Amino acid sequence: MFIHIFKYRFKSLIRNKSMIFWTLVFPLLLATFFSLAFSGLNDHERFNTINIGIIKDDNYEKDFAFQQLIQMLSKDEKPMFSASLMNEEEAKEKLVSNSIDGFIQVGSPMVLTVHQKGFNQSVIKLFLDQYSQTYSAVINIAKEDSTVLKDVITKLEEGALYTKEFQLSQANPDNTLMYFYALIAMSCLYGSFFGLREVIDIQADQSPHAARVNLSPVHKLKAFIYSGASSVLIHTAELMVLLAYLYFGLGIDFGHQFGLVILTTILGSVVGITMGALIGVVVKGGEGIKSAVCIGVSMLGSFLSGMMYGEMKYIIDQNAPIIGRLNPIHVLADAFYALYYYDDYERYSMNALSLVAFILIFSIITYRIIRREKYASI
Amino acid sequence: MIVHVENLVKRYGELTAIDHLSMDVRQGEIFGLLGPNGSGKTTAINCILSLLKYDKGMIEIFDKPMTPYAYDIKKDIGIVMQNVAVFEELTVYENIDYFCGLYIKDKTQKEAYVNEAIAFVGLGDFIKFYPKKLSGGLLRRLNIACGIAHKPKLIILDEPTVAVDPQSRNKILEGIVELNRQGATIIYTSHYMEEVEQICSRIMILDKGRIIAEGSKEELKSMISLGEKISVEVFNLKDIHVKEIEALPNITSVVYQDHTLVIKSHKGKDNLESVLNYVRKNGINFGTIYSEKPTLNDVFLEITGKELRD
Q1: Is the pTM of this model over 0.80?
Q2: What stretches of chain B show up as alpha helix (H) in DSSP?
Q3: b/e map of B182-197 (b: 16 or more CB within 10 Å)?
Q4: Contact A375 B102 (CB under 8 A)
Q5: What's the CATH class of domain A47-159?
Q6: Tens of pLDDT along A12-28?
Q7: Is A217 in contact with B99 (Cβ distance < 8 A)?
Q8: Is B21 contained in some domain?
Q9: Domain-ending residue, one of B170, B193, B222
Q10: What are the pLDDT digits (tens) for B180-209?
Q11: Partners of residue B81 in chain A, C-beta under 8 Å
């Protein structure tokens, strides 16, 4: 009986064009749209080595401190500056051809020449201002009381240690990932359409098909479970297509724990399907109203988890974290986020447990309502 | 007894939808439940099938108490519901195979039954069609095939001919008689008295959830005083003539309206002749004239004071 019901349910669902559009085609289109909209967004925020020119003249030759500092800042694996010595004519030519972002003439004051405004030009200016201030301070102190000079230099060196970068993981920061994670979470919740369909086709007071199935010699809950299994299979397969498209097609990074990403997606699918089933049994009214509630819940959850406005996730986390914990899309997106950014599983485990709790709560309520075999009215 | 219902009561708040209904359906008969829309036919069927909760009463099918879990009873029942209950995304063949498969596990037997059902309802040319491509009549036939493919002992058809063209309706009615001839007991609900009169061996008339009459069509017609209804097309009739016709022997009522004179009388041999004699004697010009035996609508009208289609 399982194979019989499963097979026909599978055929019936896979041929439902509207359902397949919303649960498969729409997320793929949205992912493509996101990819186009966000392309290059991170490039602006990623720091690249700045090419600068330094005029080689007497002032430069005499300023050993500046020479040492420039050498130091040009040395790292990913240095701040790539400095080249040149004469003024050569520097102007390179500036016009954009080979360098600016050139510096050492002296008092330091002179910075740039061809246009921009992020790199601001960094060079900031660097020069800070150098000039520190240089002046040291010279003034040395003039007034040379005995404290050593202490001052030590303090300045300590100043550089006030903050320390601490990396939580190997992952590269990427602001656009949250949008894609929220999109996957939304697609999981679109499984609610499958759950809703299952309830409509098993509750005799909701459709003639359901009444007809209720009159057959098949246990209602068994029929519901057999039929629901095909919903889970189809929706999970759709989500796998979405993941593959995001990963292989759009190059979205899911970190190095892809197995858990898949597991989380499957959990998300079951959350979506059970949520749709719950909406089907709890919300009064026709199929149209119930579908609207499914869309509304998914859209509101997506908005609150930052799919339409990235800052929303942080606003909710800071001001009303309970809303985030009760929003399955927020929990799902955060689970993907935790898998990407954190090497330990504490945050992920909390999210995974929340998903299991959602599934249990939705299923228990649905079961208590659909287990009845007789209806007050049809 | 195939179906035994005793004192069934079903209420929706203040409204009593089924009011102490008792009925017995015997093996091999076509039992008709006749009544206007809202009389409680479908509610009664849903209670009998244990789909609806009811407030009072006892229901037995095949001499066993009917419950939602009585799968051994359900496997021998075929249902054709008032609303077409097929899956839009499955073809004609797949729909019948799906519903048949809920009852029949053996693959070979199921395939044979499905093909028989397709042939029975005449959908052989449409097996790969999706329901939305079928006409109303063909869709109703598919609905019937889904309900009867597993060869049930008891078939319940709830208004199976609603919104069906006359040709398909005749085909459906002939099919029901054939199913009965093959051994199935049938419960047939309808508000079309002609259909019930045509195929049912025993009839129960319902109104407002109550039984108002029960028996064979002959028994039902014998319950009322009306024996004959004579209609005469007359273009000009004086009031005095109406009164004089009313005074003729055996006549119970005379109504002249829209150039038609309708005369109702008790049973008797010479009613038509005496009316004809009066018309000729008084030089009244008339067009058509015909006599009808009472219908189930007349039974309903006499008992309830309203037309069956009200």
Answers
A1: no
A2: 41-48, 71-74, 92-101, 107-121, 136-148, 166-181, 193-199, 217-222, 239-246, 271-281, 296-304
A3: eebbbbbbbbbbebbb
A4: no
A5: alpha beta
A6: 999 999 999 999 999 99
A7: no
A8: yes
A9: B222
A10: 999 999 999 998 888 898 999 999 999 999
A11: 208, 211-212
